[in-house]
Amino acid sequence: MLMAHPVVLRNLVEQYVTLRALHAENGSAQARRRMADLAYTLCVSTGTSDVDTALVAARHRLPGARPADDSVLAG
After folding, report:
1. Residue 68: what pLDDT?
2. Could you write out the three-class secondary structure of 3-65?
């Protein structure tokens, strides 16, 4: 599987998280489309099938992530 560059992953994660924090899913059609595009790209980039799993996988691939740390999965 091809692996996205960490800079690309960080950018995708930051954009998605920002849009989600702004509740873009309830916003304009353009904002909803951008969120859907980001979710799809994150899933493809991480080899996952849902955006929440993609976010976890992307964060684990970023510099400074501890590979054995599964704390983001708890709670």
Report:
1. 57
2. CCCHHHHHHHHHHHHHHHHCCHHHCCHHHHHHHHHHHHHHHHHHCCCCHHHHHHHHHHHCCCC
